[in-house]
Design a protein that fits this description.
Number of strands: 13
Order of helices and strands: EEHHEHEEHEEEEEHEEE
Shape: globular
Structural class: alpha+beta
Distance between the termini: 13 Å
Amino acid sequence: MANRSFYVDEIYRNENGDFYTGLALEHNEWLKDRYKFEKVADPYTTCRGKTVRCEYSQIFYPDSQMLLCNEIASVDGNLYDNLENGELSRYYDADGNEVDADDDWESEEPIEIYQYYLIDRATAERLKEHTDEIIFYCEMLDLCVLGVTHWGTGWDYVETDFVY
């Protein structure tokens, strides 16, 4: 697949029209029992502009440059002022349902970031275009920073969405 925009093996569609990568299905066997899947013959055409459920590791190319830098938030006091992508809070209506920040909301819950990675500009731009991952810009280093909001699980087992 020459025109792919993320690291993908195969893409499958269920009867509801939801798309999943092969790796996401492999790590979630219960989905195969619940839905019928068919392999998408031409993912680039079929999935263009659609959300594909994948594993977190698949949103990074093998050549993505990343460096763990968990102290960056304490070193750069302006990091949170330079949010380029994603949300730092979740918003809930009066019934406790998650809503967009633009909607009427009753309560707000901050999103916890467990790890910070310095990332190259190409990776940052790809993530900003296709995901809602938290991306900051660090003026001190002239680098982008990825805020990872999950902890303790290998990236091959954390599900995320990627708009193909």
